[in-house]
# Entry
Amino acid sequence: MTIKLLDVAYARLKTPDLDSASQFATRVLGLEQIDRSGNSRSFRSDHRVSTLSYEAGDPWETTVGFELASDEDLQIAAGTLEAMDYAVRHGSRGECDQRHVRDFIAFSDPGGGRIEFAVSPHVAGSKARLARDAGITGFSHVGLFSQDTTRDEHFWTQVCSARVSDRLGELPLLRLSQIHHSIALVPADRSGVQHINHQVQSIDDVQRSYSLLRQHNVPIVFGPGRHPTSGARFVYFEGPDDMVFEYSVGVQEVDEATYRERQFGFEPSSLCMWGAKATLKELSN
# Structure
């Protein structure tokens, strides 16, 4: 039975320097810190209580959480994965509280990436109090490293409910809703989170953040530019432990009834129609 995913819900990162990572999340990214304990910090970017967290630990141990619609869908997901011999772990009450969700399961995807499926991410009754005027409207999508994009695309589109919007060479862009993509499977020799996207209100927010990032000597790794696939205007930059973050605006919404996936060549003009060149290892050619 197909596992129905609603949206990407949160990213959980680890770092050896929790204080520095937390300062980056607020002072540079602009997120609101909502939790602080001995070895973890949680941050808010939109109507949900938490969409990003840092814990003390190995930066390679990244996790992405996806939202499912109901407890029944979560049970179906657990049963489907177990029937396919995935090792599924059910979250404890304390772990659910830490993630600000009602329930979740955890497993490793076909490439070994840490994935969680969750229900009822907690919603706040007020707007996020962003730490700076970054114009962030919400946590939007993730890039996932993939050692075998054919295998991983099959998992996300055949076992789960993702659909292919476009391909850049062997890099598929997968959608979970009308938004052009929520997952990008980026060919690499490892698994884990490749980048984390936050949407902003306007191209002015992208440009303002670009200037701020340069002032703070934050490495810009791509942009400002515009993706021919989704139409989004963007800037990518490196955060703590080499994690890549992106601000973007203007991503295309897809008409499910009429949209057909497209194949782009893996070349600079397919990545940016403004001529920006990526310095990211996985996107350089």
Summary: The longest strand covers residues 136-146. The chain has a mean pLDDT of 96. Residues 71-83 form the longest helix (13 residues). Residues 53 and 184 are 21 Å apart (CA to CA).
